[in-house]
Each structure stands twice: as C-alpha cells, then as structure tokens.
Design goal:
By secondary structure, the chain is mainly α. 62% of the residues lie in helices and 6% in strands. It is built from eight helices and three strands. Strand 2 and strand 3 form a beta hairpin. Helix 3 crosses helix 8 and helix 7 packs across helix 8. The longest helix has 35 residues.
C-alpha cells in the first residue's frame, strides 16, 4: 500500500475520532443538563422540545406541531398527555373547528426555562464569522458524502423538515433560522 494512502487514512481516522470526541462530550454535557434541569430543560427532544416550540408559538394545533417536530400525531399526543397531566399545557378545541385541538402553555409551562438553547453559542464561542462559514461548508460537504451513500431519501427528508419549520416560524412572525449562513437547502440561516 502506498504511503500517501496510509497518511490519508490516518488523517481521516484521526479527524473522525475528533468528531466523535466532540459528540461524546456534547452528550456528557447534555446528560449533565438533564440531571440539573430535568427533561423539560432539553430543547432538542421530548417534552422540552414541545415546550420550546410552544414558547415560540402558543396555541398551535396538534397536527401542525407533529408536522413541525417531525413525529407522528399519536406519539405527540402521548407526550402531550403527560405534559397536560403534569400541568404544563392545556388542550382545547379550536373556536373555528371543534375537531382541531389547540395546545397552549399553562402558567407553569411558561415558567420553564429551556437550557439546551445555549449550547450552540457555547460550542462556537471564539469562532469568527469566517471560521463558522468554513466549518459550515465542511459540514455541508460531509452531509453530501453521507447523502451519496444513503441516496436521495436523506435529502428529501431534510428538505421537508427544514421547509416545514421555516414556513411555520415565518408564518407566525418569528423570522428564526437555524444555523449560520446559507445551508444546502438554500434557506438563509441568519440570526440565530
């Protein structure tokens, strides 16, 4: 085997290990935050993600929530039931269409302060805009490699999720975009 190929494999392996190390440390931080703040403080999954969405837009229909979060209505209803039982949300029929259930935060639900939202700021502290743009470009290239391996399904799913979230958040006047710069989906990602 030629030496340049060995060096490339070694660099790929080292870089991959570093990426995995970052992932493991992020998970450790996530577990610490879960221990400190409980599952409601995690804005990336479960009940915390639902509360974070409701803090952006209160009074949303269950079907719309499921679409934005990318989960089945039945799974969402199970989690909403727990949140309702614990006093964080209420579900009431829509005035316009009684078949539509609207989910709203209770006073207790509004008091929950999500803690997961600080991670991006902490993770990228000290990076310049140019460095973040370059890193974002590297991630796009990595995603392209993975999509090539997985096929068209990966891109279709990502596009649908990004579009649904962007449409919902813009429709409700939040102007929020994830990430930094322009992503593969073509949406602006300014102002996180």
């Amino acid at each position: 085997m030629d030496t340049s190929m060995n060096e490339e494999t070694t660099k790929n392996d080292q870089t991959f290990r570093k990426l995995m190390d970052v992932q493991h440390v992020m998970m450790a931080l996530h577990h610490r935050k879960m221990f400190e703040h409980g599952p409601l403080g995690d804005t990336t999954r479960g009940r915390g993600r639902i509360l974070a969405l409701l803090q952006l837009k209160d009074g949303i229909a269950t079907k719309d929530m499921a679409q934005i979060l990318g989960i089945r209505v039945s799974s969402l209803n199970e989690t909403l039931g727990k949140l309702e039982r614990d006093g964080y949300i209420e579900r009431t029929p829509s005035e316009e269409d009684k078949r539509i259930m609207l989910v709203t935060l209770t006073e207790k639900g509004r008091e929950v302060k999500p803690h997961g939202s600080r991670l991006p700021k902490k993770l990228f502290a000290g990076f310049s805009d140019e460095e973040l743009d370059a890193f974002s470009g590297y991630l796009d290239r990595m995603m392209a490699n993975l999509e090539e391996e997985l096929g068209e399904d990966a891109q279709v799913v990502l596009e649908q999720m990004r579009e649904k979230r962007a449409e919902f958040l813009e429709m409700h006047g939040h102007g929020f975009r994830h990430g930094h710069g322009r992503g593969r989906c073509g949406h602006s990602h300014e102002g996180q």
